[in-house]
Amino acid sequence: MSHHYITTHGDQGESVFSTKVPTEHYAHDIPGGKLEIIYSAHTFPPNLSTELDIDQYAHDRTHGLPAENPICPVDGTATAIVSMPPNAVSLMHRTMTLDVAIVIEGVIELHLEGGESRTLHAGDSITQRGTMHMWKNVTPDDGWARMAGFATPIAQPFEVAGKRLETEWRM
Predict the structure, then answer these.
(1) Which residues contact 27 (CB under 8 A, 6 or more apart)?
(2) Which residues contact 75 (CB under 8 A, 6 or more apart)?
(3) Which part of the chain is the Cupin type-2 domain (predicted)?
């Protein structure tokens, strides 16, 4: 089992490991896999003079992110691991976030609404700019696929081809 640690500062200002958050991994079910929040902050940049960001992250880790944006806090940032079981397929979706994802295990197809797709292998990355997309685990021999993702909310609503884009999930 792997672990996750957060650093902070002790009473004398020295660097220490936080004891506020369990180091064991905890993942939430999402369409097509599991989402494990590695870190979240509800402000960006976060204030590191206190540990309010760690307290909020501990809450997010056990209860999930707010319903208005389950991928990333509206005014903050999030880092997560997405694990997809063999042959899993996500819903076609758009989130109001700028995402950077890095495949760390397996092979994943990324399908876009316009019909294009790319196959990503371990070490490949993608910057997702609020576009409609779907993930499909195509790892050989019924293997799992994992991605590390870094999400930042899109600061303002935006329009493309005269249409205002919003978070969207399609069956």
Answers:
(1) 34, 35, 36, 81, 83
(2) 42, 43, 44, 153
(3) 81-140
Tell which residue, 80, 93, 102, has the closest CA to residue 32: 93
Contacts of residue 38, Cβ cutoff 8 Å, sequence gap at least 6 = 4, 79, 80, 81, 148
46-101 tens-digit pLDDT: 888 989 888 888 887 777 666 666 677 778 888 999 999 999 999 999 888 889 99
Task: Quote the pTM value.
Answer: 0.84
For the chain, domains (ranges, CATH) are 24-157+165-170 (2.60.120.10)
Name the pLDDT band for 41 (thresholds 50, 70, 90). Answer: confident
Measured CA to CA, the distance from residue 64 to residue 51 in angstroms comes to: 19
Give phi and psi for 141, each to the nearest 5.
60, 35
